[in-house]
Write a structure and sequence with these properties.
The protein is mainly α. It is 59% helix and 3% strand. It has a two-stranded parallel ribbon. The protein is globular and about 60 Å long.
Length: 313
């Protein structure tokens, strides 16, 4: 079955239909390429850290891997919209094996969760509405950073993702498509476990996969969840989400794969990550969008930064 994500009705007034059609074209080759690059980085960082056997290098490796785990979650987000492939089987198989299962989440359950967010943005039925804040003090931001990195907020983080986690879902599922996903997950776990036991790398997986996933990754995930919609106008589609012009460092650490063009994504969820920047450039030619869109320059520094908007000084 071929899936065709749709933009909102008002979005079609912002760009020509031909441009939307062109920008919405998926590329399996590009998606697989970037998924592969991400995994190559992860394996290379782990291999280097083991070889160098240095505490500082290990900590830096944990941070880098956490950023790549977040990058995997962004590609999973694309898969939730069938932006890897419009063919469900191809899209979800790639997503499950290389994106969602390594993070212990379900592609289909995440899709259900995320599409509810799109349909009910800013309302009480939005499953992510509690991620929005009006203001944060610097102390609260530091507490969030320390709480996530130290594991203090681990239970809170696990609860927030429980609606799409694979853990605990294996025996509860009744829907046939989720049963198939469960069987694939069991195959994945058995294969991964066999590999880990055979090569005796349990400690390596614990330090270089689960430690970053339960510390730095949770902070990056939480911070971006706050940045997407906080202090945006819930009554206007052009002001309900934000785009952020990011620096190279911000792109590498907290905003991979054009995650910063979140307003553009909400207007056109069928546009794959690799076309979001181009779509935003086209949108900026529209006077209504340019005049009303919620846009920040950088996350942390400058008078137009997200940090300046959200931090109560």
């Amino acid at each position: 079955m071929v899936r065709k994500p749709k933009a909102s009705k008002n979005s079609y007034l912002l760009l020509p239909k031909e441009a939307i059609t062109q920008l919405s074209k998926t590329s399996l080759l590009k998606s697989v390429f970037w998924i592969s690059i991400n995994w190559i980085i992860i394996v290379s960082v782990i291999t280097s850290a083991i070889y160098l056997n240095n505490f500082i290098v290990t900590i830096l490796s944990v941070l880098i891997i956490a950023t790549r785990q977040y990058a995997l979650s962004i590609l999973l987000h694309d898969a939730a919209h069938y932006n890897i492939s419009r063919k469900k089987l191809t899209n979800d198989l790639i997503s499950s094996l290389f994106l969602s299962f390594p993070l212990l989440v379900s592609t289909e359950l995440y899709r259900q969760h995320h599409l509810m967010h799109h349909r009910h943005l800013h309302s009480e039925n939005d499953p992510d509405v509690n991620d929005q804040v009006k203001k944060m003090s610097k102390t609260e931001l530091v507490k969030m950073l320390i709480g996530n990195i130290s594991g203090i907020y681990l239970i809170k983080s696990l609860r927030s993702s429980s609606s799409f986690s694979m853990i605990g879902r294996l025996i509860k599922t009744k829907c046939s498509f989720l049963i198939r996903e469960n069987l694939l997950f069991v195959f994945f776990i058995l294969t991964a476990s066999t590999f880990i036991i055979y090569f005796n790398i349990f400690s390596i997986v614990l330090i270089f996969w689960f430690l970053p996933m339960l510390t730095f990754f949770t902070f990056i995930y939480r911070f971006n969840a706050i940045a997407e919609h906080s202090k945006c106008n819930p009554d206007d589609e052009l002001e309900g989400s934000r785009n952020i012009d990011v620096s190279l460092i911000e792109r590498l650490i907290i905003s991979p794969f054009n995650k910063n063009y979140h307003l553009t994504h909400h207007l056109f969820p069928g546009i794959p990550f690799f076309n979001l920047k181009k779509a935003t450039q086209e949108l900026l030619k529209n006077s209504e969008f340019k005049g009303k869109a919620c846009i920040n320059r950088y996350y942390f520094f400058g008078r137009k930064s997200f940090f300046k908007d959200i931090i109560d000084v």
